[in-house]
């Protein structure tokens, strides 16, 4: 099978809710990284076969195939198409998969994969809330087929995070220690300039806004749980954020034709599902499946990115697979850096790529929990 290569990857700084990117139109947010990617790689933009971008809640400024709109807003050629995809939190990781699959199939040579999300302007689940205003059904409880299969029970990420904490006996204190580590790791990465190569400033906005220098276990302990008697608080959950990210995926022929120097190779890609009520356990099954398919073990992987939707998700995944936490999210994760849903997949992969290069590691594995109990896994090999 043909190879798919990562040529380059960029992202905006991640803005916190109501922060530096809050008023930026979603198409302009996406356009910013697309334009920067074309400029950095020096490619003929008209040679791009497709632009695949992840985005959730595609209403308002994110409606109307925002991937296509973002490309045009960037001033790039009309003849290049774009498509917007939604695999919930894994949308832009899936964008990388579709881009790589197009290249590996031999039907495409240059594909841009990325994602964008302005959660300040369009809060999570806005599309569902708007639909309810017009009398449309919710995705779960009002479906007779769903109720027949899963019962009339609450389906939410918050309930799932709490259920995971209880099943794996993960205490609130353990999650808060993990959350504090996420902030400390992110701040260290910022202070050491580890993100400098991957971030494309937006005007004067150059640094991720989420990491908190003044946070502490004492402050976290004072927060109220999201449900009475529960273990999950805002401190151990990912932050609502705004950002965009993009990478260029190329075939071997495109690398030769355009004089490109690839930075990594897509070694493996897959996606699996798990119980949709538990929802956030998907990375466990998906990672096992990916390692088995790739003929690899945890020991073969130098660095891991497991999205910090909630601390309990990463801790349960690490425990089940015996993944050492010192190799996971070494520059912080969603708890500190934020989780701009549609953009997070390629944001994580961009950071993973740069950290493999910084440390000299060979293989990096990325996974993330997704709505519906799904999880993508990508293994990249640094070149």
Automatic annotation (TrEMBL):
This is Acetyl-CoA C-acetyltransferase. Residues 261-382 form the Thiolase C-terminal domain. CDD domains: thiolase. It comes from the Bacteria. Belongs to the thiolase-like superfamily. Thiolase family. One of its GO terms (molecular function) is acetyl-CoA C-acetyltransferase activity. SUPFAM superfamilies: Thiolase-like. Pfam families: Thiolase_C, Thiolase_N. Its EC number is 2.3.1.9. It comes from Nocardioides massiliensis. Keywords: Acyltransferase, Transferase. InterPro entries: Thiolase, Thiolase-like, Thiolase_C, Thiolase_CS, Thiolase_N. The lineage of its organism: Bacteria, Bacillati, Actinomycetota, Actinomycetes, Propionibacteriales. Residues 5-253 form the Thiolase N-terminal domain.
